[in-house]
Amino acid sequence: MNMQSQALISKKAKLGTGVKVGPHAVIGDNVIIGDNSSIGAFCVVEGNTTIGSNCEVFTGAIIGSQPQDLKYKGEKVFLKIGDNNIIREYCTFNPGTADGGGITKVGDGNLFMAYSHVAHDCTVGNNCVIANVGTLAGHVTIEDKAVIGGLVAIHQFVRIGTLSIIGGCSKVVQDIPPYSTCDGHPTRVYGLNLLGLRRNNVSKESIQRLSQAFRIIFNSGLTPKHALEKIEREIEKSAEVQYLINFVKNSQRGISRSCRSKAE
Prior knowledge:
alpha/beta
C-alpha cells in the first residue's frame, strides 16, 4: 500500500494490496477497497462502501456519503462499486435506502467524468460512460454500454437501455430504448445508435431488423402495444429485436417518444 502521511484512514477499513491513497483523503471504518485501486487527494470514502480492484478515484470525489433522501433515517445501507472503474474529479456516489432495496450498485469498466452524480438506489451496468455533470436521480437504472452526455439530468426510476446514447444537456423523464440515439428537452428518440451497434459487432441483419422495429414503434403512429404486436408478426426475431420488445413491454414510465412526434 502506498499511503500519504496526511491521509486519514480508519484502522477498521480493509484495503487490498497495491492500494494508493492521496494526501488529505479520508477512508471510513466500513470501507473495502480492492487491489491496485487508487484514491486521490481530498477524496472521502465512507459508509458501507466497497470499491473493487483497479479503480481510479480522482481528486475530491465523495463516495458513500448518506443518501440525499428525506426518508433516510440512518438505516444500514450499502454502495458497491465493481472493478476497473474511473471516477473523475468531484463525483458523488450515494448508497441505497431502505425503501429502495438498501444498495446502490455500479458494475465494471465504467467512466464517470467530473462532477457526475449517482444517487441512492441506482444501478449502473458495465462499460458505461457518464460525461461531466451527468446526474442520476434515485432508482435510475443504466444498462451496459450506455453513453450519457454532459449535463444530462435523469429523472427518478428511469431506465436507460443498453447501447443507447443521450446527447448533452438532455432532460430524461421516460425510459430510453436500447440501441437508440436520443437528445432534447425533454429527450426524444432520433434513431438507432448505428455506430455503437457496429462497434459491438451486431450483425447487419439484426441492425436491419432493429431499424424496421424502430420505424414501427416510433413512426407508425401505433400505440406501443399495437406496435409490438406488429413487430412480432412481421419482423424475424434476433436477440436484439427480442431485447427491444421486452424492454418496451416492461417499461414502467413509458418510453421516450420520437423526435417526429408533434404532440407533447
